Amino acid sequence: MRLNEPPKEKGGRTAMAKSSTENSEKQEKSGGKPSSASRSRKNSGEEGLQGMKKRLARTGKSFFSAGRGEAARGKKKRSAREERERKAAAREKTDKNILKITYAFAALFIGMCVYFGWFLQFDSENVINSSYNARLDRFSDRIVRGKILSNDGRVLAETQVAGDGSEKRYYPYNYLFVHSVGYSGKNGKTGIESLANFYLLSSHVNLLERTVNELQGRKNIGDNVVTTLDVDLQQTASDAMGNRRGAVIAMEPDTGKILAMVSQPNFNANTVDEQWAELTSPENTKAQLVNRATQGLYPPGSTFKILTALEYIHESPNGRNDFHFDCDGTFEDGEYQIRCYHGESHGSQDFRGVFANSCNGAFSSIGLGLNLTQFRSLAEQFLFNRELPLSIPYNKSSFVMAEGADEWERLQTSIGQGKTQMTPMHNLMITAAIANGGTLMKPYLIDHVENAGGQTVKKFMPSAYGGLMSGEDAAVLTELMTAVVTEGTGSALRGAPYTAAGKTGSAEFETGKETHAWFVGFAPVEDPKIAVCVILEESGSGGSKAGPVARAVMDKYFEKYPQ
Description:
The protein is an alpha+beta fold.
């Protein structure tokens, strides 16, 4: 405290001011008038109070203004923070959407890569060779279509170029390979001509020759397709068939190579364009354009007993050892009657005997006791009602009997009659699988592709389809089929210089007409090299009609390829 400063009371008022005030108050109470000094002091005090109030008001105003500023700044900060959070959330959402789009495009890209890989590996050749691929034929503007050759290099089809540059496809064997090699003309392409179209219109001549040809405006020579077909076996099969309608196919069971494929009636591949109106006429009942080997559907007859026998063995593993049946030529079940071929009586037989003799009575009896669901499952396991591993046009075989079938349908189906139908190629594939220990090899017609100079540019290798049956089942069926040849209906192959196994069939298809004659078989039994299927329409007994055709083909094979 400074010495010249009057003492202050608590609360800010000076002692002098307080004393003056008190004196004034005393005077008022006593009824006297305050002195001028007192009034002066009073006025001075009031002015001080007023000033103090003004200062306090200014201070409060300043304080509240500061508070409002702080509130505004806080609100602004909150708004900025919220804006930052909003932007961060928006960025995060955008990033997530971008990530989703990235994943979607990545998945799409991977899917496209997988598809293109699958296409190149499995489907590109089918698309390229499709008869609907119009671009492929444009190759013929700069490439002379290559040759189709037999397995030993003989020409089966070639392009002849005239002096004026015009081209014509020529088939040296006329009708012989018309369903296997096919034809190429104004009305399209079939057979190997269609299957190998891409290779025949590709050229792998050396770069120098190609460049010179292109500079001089000459066409390059297309690649040659070497087939698996054997001319001698094809000719033998055709000769053995004579003028009868039907088909013959021969195949290597351990590779799937098709050695021969004959279908009759046929036509001259060199004149298909000129014959087209006749071939496609509604009045033409010969159906020459149909490849009966792969597209003809027939009741399998007794060749189907291969499956009936196998289903019986599956359901009764020991039953065949105790099996016994007395055949008097006719089997009766209530109102239904099944006769053996020509009513022949086979007498007392075991399971091996009824299979070797193809006894309809015994197999009708067996069929009535089979589980229909399991029987149908076995048929489909053997590719009935299924796609076949074939690269040329074919029809699916059908097995329609299902649970609830009546007795007549069961009797008929068990002996290969009724509604069951199959193609010769399918019958051959089953036979080849038995010969190959249960494994089916995919049938194929092209061995390799070579350029005009004879250098191989593409090789086709054997490929397994998979197991149709176990090795044990194949061995049992081989034993039964061997008995057909050695002691049963397959007598046409008895006495051959090689062992053989087979199954005959005589399939009824229309009242009053001869049966279709079937034979399927393979040889030699111990190491099968060839499997054969024969179907002769309306020809009678499979053993006496189809069997000799199969024998002729097998004889030619072992003559040409001695073991």
